[in-house]
Amino acid sequence: MTHDFSKVIEKLLACRAALIFTHVNMDGDAVGSSAALCLAMRKLGKECYILKEDKLGDYLRFLVPEGLFTDLGADGSVTVPGGSVPYSWELSIAVDMGSDSRLERRKDAFYSAPASVCVDHHPAQGEFADCRVVDRDCPAAALLVYELIKELNVEIDREMADLLYAGIITDTGSFKYENSGPEAHRAAAELIELGARYELLSLKLLDTHALETLRVEDTAMERAETVCGGRGIVSYITLADLERCGARPENAETAIDRLRVLKTAELAAVLKEREPGVYKLSARSKLTGLARELALRFGGGGHAKASGATLEMPLEQAYGAVKAACEELLEGAEESL
Predict the structure, then answer these.
(1) What CATH number is attached to the domain comprising 164?
(2) Is residue 281 a contact partner of residue 309, using CB atoms and an 8 Å limit?
(3) Is the same domain home to 130 and 14?
(4) Residue 35: which domain range?
(5) In a domain, 337, yes or no
(6) 291 and 163 part of one domain
(7) Which of 206, 233, 267 is the endpoint of a domain?
């Protein structure tokens, strides 16, 4: 797998300072790929930070060195971590993000820079950067960033190897998804040779959950409903559920994984209330692209088998619409399981 990073590299090397943007509700690939690139930029002598607007999940905190992330101010300003002087940058870098809709409140900040680039593996949903390297067949953004860092001739230390390996195992489901081809395995082997702590990373990212997470998953399972004779399964999680479980929004992220393992289910969907009347849809499918088709119906997108969207409407209306859409999509699709 090779890509033409020449134009991206030209902009990376030309800038004095850069700001990296990744999608909201950051997962291991978003964090791993953006943090590894941020460290590479600093090794090149560039000033670089990652701008976020939501909290980093507790399960990811062990992975990220201090001082990489900065938050968007209430007034839309950006400051260096621990400082008060507004941060000034010439290049905005989008990583693991197929649409500027995933920037949400940071959109103005992204477009305020005179230049921008994007490195991503999602199906493109509009051109939103001056220069883009997008490969929708690549299993993880971390794999693209790994290739980019090697093209930049930056030495990859153990810290960076950990971050890149974390990104790859997150988006390949620890190499069990269809996208886990030879390139992913070869890159993983190389990163292990560079010091990636594969056993620790797999344990912490994939096989360790807080009690609050298990309680939220149980809540989603208890109220789950099947559609089309079990070919689909849907559920929801409210803010009241999170409060009752002593949980935070991040504790609801794995609920979709519990639902998708139902033996007969090709399509799984979960609505998660993020603020009153605002629900994040997570959709997963096994052998078809129905997850993305479902997300697209609600203005979202993503990968063929892992996608999401945002619905702003009362729960009863949102849940009813998602359930009906699942039924319609499954009725129009051949049985895959």
Answers:
(1) 3.90.1640.10
(2) yes
(3) yes
(4) 6-206
(5) no
(6) no
(7) 206
> Is residue 233 domain-shared with residue 168, that is, in the same domain?
no
Residue 201 lies in a domain: yes
CATH number at residue 299: 3.10.310.30
Find out whether 297 and 170 touch, Cβ atoms under 8 Å.
no
Contact 72, 51 (CB under 8 A): yes
Residue pair 263/83 in contact (Cβ under 8 Å)? The answer is no
| Contact (CB, 8 A) for 78 and 72 | yes
Domain count, the chain: 2
Looking at the domain assignment, is residue 1 inside a domain?
no
- pLDDT tens per residue across all 337 residues of the chain: 689 999 999 999 999 999 999 988 899 999 999 999 999 999 999 999 999 988 888 889 999 999 999 988 888 889 887 776 789 999 999 999 888 878 888 999 999 999 999 999 987 666 789 999 999 889 999 999 999 999 999 999 999 999 999 999 999 989 988 778 899 999 999 999 999 999 999 999 988 999 999 999 999 999 999 999 999 999 999 999 999 999 999 899 999 999 999 999 999 999 999 999 999 999 999 999 999 999 999 998 888 898 999 999 999 999 999 999 999 999 988 776 6
Sequence-separated contacts (24+) of 270-276 with Cβ below 8 Å: 270/220, 270/234, 270/235, 270/236, 270/237, 271/235, 271/236, 271/237, 271/311, 271/315, 271/318, 271/319, 271/322, 272/236, 272/237, 273/236, 273/237, 273/238, 273/239, 273/242, 273/315, 274/249, 275/239, 276/239
Q: Are 237 and 247 in contact (CB under 8 A)?
A: no
Distance of CA 53 to the CA centre of its chain: 14
Looking at the domain assignment, is residue 120 inside a domain? yes
**Which residues touch 44 (CB under 8 Å, ≥6 apart)?**
12, 13, 152, 154
